[in-house]
Amino acid sequence: MSYVRNECDMALLIRNGRVVTAGSDAVADVLVEGETIVAVGRDLAAPASAEVLDATDKLVLPGFIDPHVHIHLPFMGTHAKDDHASASKAALVGGTTSLIEMICPGPDEDPVEAYELWKSKAAGAASCDYGFHMGVTNFDESTPDKLKKIVEDGTASFKVFLAYKGALGVSDEELFNTLELAAELGVIVTAHCENESLVSELQQRLLADGKTGPEWHEPSRPVRVEAEGVHHLMTFAELTGAHVYVVHTSCQEAVEAAAAAKARGVQAWIETVIPYLVLDDTYAQQTGFEGAKYVMSPPIRDEQHQPYLWNALANRTISTVATDHAPFDFKGQKEMGRDNFTMIPNGIPSVEHRVQLLYHHGVTTGRIDLSTFVDSASTQAAKLFGLYPKKGTIAVGSDADLVVWDPDWEGVLSVDTHHMQTDYSAFEGWEQVGRADTVTVRGEVMVRGGEFVGPEGKGQFLKREPTH
């Protein structure tokens, strides 16, 4: 449904909260008029018509940004379960006010047609703001003009896959041409880094040996294969001068490969996703096919990688924490791979719980501080993808995307209470401390007391200019 808003006389004052951004931390008030923050300070006066929220003993944070989600996703013979209505509600309840979705056209699909299709799925349905990374799965003589048209429309980032041989993956020639065009246009390229040929060969050998269960997914895509993919991308980025962003790094070796390139001058940034920080490969090794719930690519790794990832996040080697949200049901979808792990749809539904898990397992444990929490889950994504300071901070003139966070809330995650449309939760029964209590999108209260209160379909397309 579409949403029409009358902004006249709309005002909101959030009082007495601990206002935390990537670079500041102080008790203050935040005054919103219409869609915009108009003042931040102590003892602010509000218009007579303003709604006043008392945030005493709570945190006031910038709306969080998930820069890596899949919502409309035809994949591996099926289709992801969420649509923009459900995914955006889930995101908002979790404190995420902006999503950047990966457009993944088939290799024979026209890029402009795919782009318009993906946009149409979100328009009028999303309740949070949204943008896109344009997937490049083929590159011929017509591609540059089509991609330029997409960039002119406001989508200033590309996505390439160095995986999924015969489907989404690009050849070296296509990778080079995409990066060269991106450098010319000032567009950043996000990349799924593995080595598709090595993965394919390892998969076939494991299956030939009768190793068909979900526990063999990780051995088919080991850490060296991911690290090789990162190294490969960095070589091409160095030769073309393109700016690159490595999505969902899962292990020490992959992060080190990107960090080494950065040290020699390659313009590169590193993302991890919340499953790698809180899950390990024992979940995928569960009996009775339960491990299929935890199959994603790259795979969740041995727990020895987690301290390294947390440290790399804390010292800001890792810039962002996203989700790679790719929601598939256990029954009927994950089960497609009961006799062949390569047929299990990849993905762990997590758009609703990313921020909560990062706070509970990062901030409350002392692994990261509050400024890193905000920077990695909001501000860096805004800066990297052309949204800052409109998004990603609390400042005069910024969009009034705000989260009043209750650090004392205690509860349990469950499929029975989540807003995602999957039939399972990867975090079933996990006890958590802290949640988004109140969430606004451009000044409109969308969540109260941890519950979505609408209105539906409020989300706007985030038109972005090239910044690289």
Automatic annotation (TrEMBL):
Residue numbers bearing the N6-carboxylysine modification: 159
SUPFAM superfamilies associated with the record: Composite domain of metallo-dependent hydrolases, Metallo-dependent hydrolases
Domain annotation Amidohydrolase-related: ranges: 59-445
Pfam families: Amidohydro_1
The keyword Manganese appears for this protein: no
Protein origin, superkingdom: Bacteria
Gene Ontology cellular component terms for the protein in this record: cytosol
InterPro entries named in the record: Amidohydro-rel (IPR006680), Hydantoinase/dihydroPyrase (IPR011778), Metal-dep_hydrolase_composite (IPR011059), Metal_Hydrolase (IPR032466), Metallo-dep_Hydrolases_sf (IPR050378)
EC number in record: 3.5.2.-
Enzyme class: hydrolase
The keyword Transmembrane is assigned to this record: no
Cofactor(s) this protein requires: Zn(2+)
Transmembrane segments: none
Family, as annotated: Belongs to the metallo-dependent hydrolases superfamily. Hydantoinase/dihydropyrimidinase family.
Protein name: D-hydantoinase
